[in-house]
Amino acid sequence: MFKEYFEVRDYELDFQGIVNNANYLSYLEHTRHKYLASVGISIMQMTQEQQMLHLARTELEYKYPLRAKDKFYVTCELSIEGIRIICKQEIYTLENKLILKSKNTIVCKDLLRNRLYIPPLIKQIALQDQ
Which is nearest to 72 in space by CA: 5, 1, 23, 3? Predict the structure, then answer.
């Protein structure tokens, strides 16, 4: 399982002193991109080749809030459902307290052929994650 580590920055907090909910989406997205890069998939290169990864749906289940200076990590694992890439992610403190669970549905559109498909390397990685 892939993990990316973070520390909450002061400007990510809301007036209650907890991480603003929109920042969790940034943590998740950054981790997905880092995961793909770690296995040789460049989002920039795919885009230049007219192969677009689109986030189609995100489901978030908040358990506990993060606060200033909290250190945490985000996990990422892939699976395939039909022509959809499913990215399950979780956020934990370094003490392994579950902060958030997420299920993200991603589709890949080949703009040159006007079709949805699963890139072979992503399919291979998803099979390894299962």
Answer: 5
| Residue where the block lists tokens 């506990």 | 64
Backbone region of residue 91 per phi and psi (left: phi > 0; alpha: psi in -120 to 50; beta: other values): beta
CB atoms within 10 A of CB 50: 11
**Active-site residue 14, yes or no?**
yes
The pTM score is 0.92
The one-letter amino acid code at 83 reads I
Q: Is the per-residue pLDDT at 130 higher than 80?
A: no
Task: Name the H helices within the chain.
Answer: 21-38, 43-48, 120-129
Q: Which of 10, 14, 70, 110 is catalytic?
A: 14
How far apart are the C-alpha atoms of 127 and 116, rounded to whole Å?
19
